[in-house]
Amino acid sequence: MLYGKEHVRRYQETDGAEGHDWNGTTTLLLTTTGRRSGRKYTTPLIYQKHGDTYVVVASKGGDPKHPEWYLNLTADPTVEVQVKDRKFKARALTAKPDQKPALWGLMTRVWPDYDQYQTKTARDIPVVVLEPLS
């Protein structure tokens, strides 16, 4: 099973032929700019398409702290996304409280563990909407 840097490498090398379909769901690659380093960081994330946007969850497995990629996009919401062989820039926005329930439901249908992750932490796990810029 692909994970972490190996997942990113194989996804990039094969334009998602390896890595897009993962553990019964689908993943995209999200590249953010480090808020302190200015370096680019790429993370494989479970996603769902929602209209013209893509939805991801900043769960970090229910860790008490937000994932680094989420902290990075809150500092600079312009991100790069790869879905299979499609690469594009996007604006990352945290779902508003009135949007979140429907989007959370969309994501838990494909990865039910998100509900368990939320019970493990006091933080409100963010749902992120990626709006393509091109």
UniProtKB/TrEMBL annotation:
Catalysed reactions listed for this entry: oxidized coenzyme F420-(gamma-L-Glu)(n) + a quinol + H(+) = reduced coenzyme F420-(gamma-L-Glu)(n) + a quinone
One Pfam family cited in the UniProt record for this chain: F420H2_quin_red
Entries under InterPro entries matching the protein: F420H2_quin_Rdtase (IPR004378), Split_barrel_FMN-bd (IPR012349)
Protein family membership: Belongs to the F420H(2)-dependent quinone reductase family.
Name this polypeptide is given: Nitroreductase family deazaflavin-dependent oxidoreductase
Organism name: Nonomuraea mangrovi
